[in-house]
């Protein structure tokens, strides 16, 4: 090999190792969990979990009922029940483990709850306006009405909903649509979907899944928590993370996960 050839291949090798190193990675935007250990009721539930969720890629976190998936989602968004014993959560290289949920939301994290709570005495309009004013910009009553009404129409939700108590008596399809409405209002970067297929009938699920699909761009990431695969037929996933017995046991590319779809719970 000529001197030039040697020099060329040395350069390529150096570039390759550099691109895989931390120095290169710092240019990527991501939600990161590093060696995270969490306890609840004095019991350790997550042990030394590490995962990176890169902006622009979609992820699936997968395992059976009761494997602490929702607990992980709550910890990412904040919940007083879950105590971080060790490790860090960071967003675009800033540590966020000590931040309150509203600050995390402002930074672009959004959690669609597995069980969406009913909140009596709070009107939907008041709730949405409060969220928007505190995250995007302050609006007057009329300004916000002009912002919110077209989105309601687009999602085929009645304007009357604005004057009902938050989620009280709403069907699950309507509650999910209201979460999508919040996503449209806030344009979050990291969207955690915690088993959003629970409670939806087949038709409502299709509508919601199509809406979510239309929200997926290169500027956001879906982190889809599920123990069934249907939602993945709508949103393409770049990586599948398997969570078992408090550990990330495997990380799979979607193609491999798809192959075991039929036999998943027979394993
Ligand atoms: N309030 C509670 N008291 C006792 N156990 C609970 C409570 N809430 C959740 N758990 C238990 O925590 C475990 C993990 O729950 P969760 O994070 O919701 O799992 P997943 O989302 O994977 O189904 C389950 O075994 C569940 O029964
Ligand atoms: Mg759950």
Quick synopsis:
With 267 residues, the chain is α/β, with parallel strands linked by helices. It has nine helices and twelve strands.
Structural features, described:
The chain is built from 9 helices and 12 strands. It starts with a helix and ends in an 8-residue tail after the last helix. α8 links the parallel β9 and β10. By secondary structure, the chain is α/β, with parallel strands linked by helices. Helix content is 37%, strand content 27%. It has a 6-stranded mixed β-sheet, sandwiched between helices. A 4-stranded antiparallel β-sheet has the order 2-1-4-5, with helices on one face. It has a domain of 149 residues: P-loop containing nucleotide triphosphate hydrolases (Rossmann fold). Magnesium ion (MG) binds next to α3.
Proper CATH architecture of the domain at 55-85 and 95-118 and 170-263: 3-Layer(aba) Sandwich
H/I helix tally = 9
Radius of gyration, in angstroms, nearest whole number = 21 Å
Q: CATH superfamily name of the domain at 55-85 and 95-118 and 170-263?
A: P-loop containing nucleotide triphosphate hydrolases
Distance between the termini: 51 Å
What is the count of β-strands? 12
Q: Work out the oligomeric state of the chains in this entry.
A: single chain
Give the SSE string.
HHEEEHEEHEEHHEHEHEEEH
Major sheet characteristics:
6 strands, mixed
Low-confidence residue ranges: none
Assign a percent range to the helix content: 25-40%
CATH topology of the domain at 55-85 and 95-118 and 170-263, which one?
Rossmann fold
Give the strand order of the largest sheet, numbering strands 1, 2, ... along the chain. Answer: 6-9-10-3-11-12
Mean pLDDT rating: 87
């Amino acid at each position: 090999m000529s001197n030039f050839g040697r020099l060329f291949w040395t350069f390529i090798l150096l570039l390759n190792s550099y691109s895989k190193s931390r120095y290169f990675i710092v240019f990527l935007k991501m939600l990161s969990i590093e060696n995270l250990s969490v306890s609840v009721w004095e019991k350790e539930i997550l042990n030394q979990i590490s995962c990176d969720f890169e902006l622009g890629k979609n992820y699936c976190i997968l395992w059976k009922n009761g494997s602490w998936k929702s607990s992980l989602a709550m910890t990412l968004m904040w919940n007083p029940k879950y105590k971080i014993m060790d490790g860090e959560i960071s967003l675009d290289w800033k540590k966020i483990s000590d931040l309150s949920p509203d600050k995390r939301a402002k930074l672009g994290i959004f959690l669609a709850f597995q069980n969406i709570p009913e909140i009596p005495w709070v009107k939907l309009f008041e709730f949405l306006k409060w969220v928007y004013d505190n995250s995007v910009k302050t609006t007057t009553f009329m300004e916000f009405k002009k912002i919110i009404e077209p989105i309601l129409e687009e999602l085929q939700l009645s304007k009357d909903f604005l004057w009902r108590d938050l989620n009280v008596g709403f069907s699950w399809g309507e509650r999910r649509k209201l979460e999508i409405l919040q996503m449209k209002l806030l344009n979050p970067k990291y969207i955690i979907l915690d088993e959003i297929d629970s409670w939806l009938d087949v038709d409502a699920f299709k509508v919601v899944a199509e809406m979510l699909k239309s929200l997926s761009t290169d500027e956001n990431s879906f982190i889809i928590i599920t123990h069934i695969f249907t939602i993945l037929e709508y949103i393409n996933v770049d990586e599948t993370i398997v969570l078992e017995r408090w550990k990330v046991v495997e990380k799979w590319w979607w193609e491999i996960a798809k192959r075991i779809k039929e036999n998943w719970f027979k394993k």
